[in-house]
Design goal:
Largest sheet of chain A: 7 strands, mixed
Oligomer: heterodimer
Shape of chain B: globular
Number of helices of chain A: 0
Helix content of chain A: under 10%
Distance between the termini of chain B: 40 Å
Strand content of chain A: over 45%
Structural class of chain A: mainly beta
Radius of gyration of chain A: 13 Å
Structural class of chain B: mainly beta
Order of helices and strands of chain B: EEEEEEEEEEE
Order of helices and strands of chain A: EEEEEEEEEEE
Radius of gyration of chain B: 13 Å
Largest interface: A-B, 23 and 20 residues
Helix content of chain B: under 10%
Number of strands of chain B: 11
Number of helices of chain B: 0
Number of strands of chain A: 11
Strand content of chain B: over 45%
Chain lengths: 109, 114
């Protein structure tokens, strides 16, 4: 099965901007891979933030946005808040299957 | 209000079986692909199985093929995961997920141990 790669950890200052990426060992990630992004805070159930590259849910804070960047899926957080400190996972579609990335631990410090 | 509720987890010996259930309300269950996602203690997320709207298409991660079976009953707004020949590495919290709907259950813990 494919391998999906994410930065293991990133740090952002409060109010700052950070971009998390999601790559594939099979080549460039495109819209056809229908990337999803999830947030999971310690001890909590994951929450879906983004679907199909850039679409948000009613509960997705406006400061989060999804895109494709340099052959990868990307999640950009603009104006980081302390409550954004969490693990973030992407999910990529390969034909019938879907594979999660290993997750990025985001620290707001 | 959307509700997604898993049940059926517990402690089972290696080689044993469990059947997980997921009861859904508050959205049109029959319109969505549904998935089972698991998370081993201290680890990341893994999509175990998914099923299309009418149950005619199914996908399994390689590690559970031949052991796990996903199914659904749209009349009962319910999703199931039959898990056979369980192994220690199947120990995890299992979540029910409507991907595009964005809805997650609270999870049910499966522990495989002798």
């Amino acid at each position: 099965q494919a391998v999906v790669t994410q930065e293991p950890s990133l740090t952002v200052s409060p109010g700052g901007t950070v971009t998390l990426t999601c790559g594939s060992n099979t080549g460039a990630v495109t819209g056809g891979h229908s990337p999803f992004w999830f947030q999971q805070k310690p001890g909590q159930v994951p929450r879906t933030l983004i679907y199909d590259t850039s679409n948000k849910y009613s509960w997705t804070p406006a400061r989060f946005s999804g895109s494709l960047l340099g052959g990868k899926a990307a999640l950009t957080l603009s104006g980081a808040q302390p409550e954004d400190e969490a693990d973030y996972y992407c999910l990529i579609s390969y034909g019938g299957g879907r594979v999660f990335g290993g997750g990025t631990k985001l620290t707001v410090l | 209000e959307v509700q997604v509720m898993e049940s059926g987890g517990g402690v089972v010996q290696p080689g044993g079986s469990l059947r997980l259930s997921c009861a859904v309300s508050g959205f049109t269950f029959s319109s969505y692909w549904m998935s089972w996602v698991r998370q081993a203690p201290g680890k990341g997320l893994e999509l175990v199985a998914k099923i299309n709207e009418d149950g005619s298409e199914k996908y399994y991660v390689d590690s559970v093929k031949g052991r796990f079976t996903i199914s659904r009953d749209n009349a009962k707004n319910s999703l199931y995961l039959q898990m056979n020949s369980l192994r220690a590495e199947d120990t995890a919290v299992y979540y029910c997920l409507s991907e595009r709907g964005g809805y997650w259950g609270q999870g049910t813990l499966v522990t495989v141990s002798s």
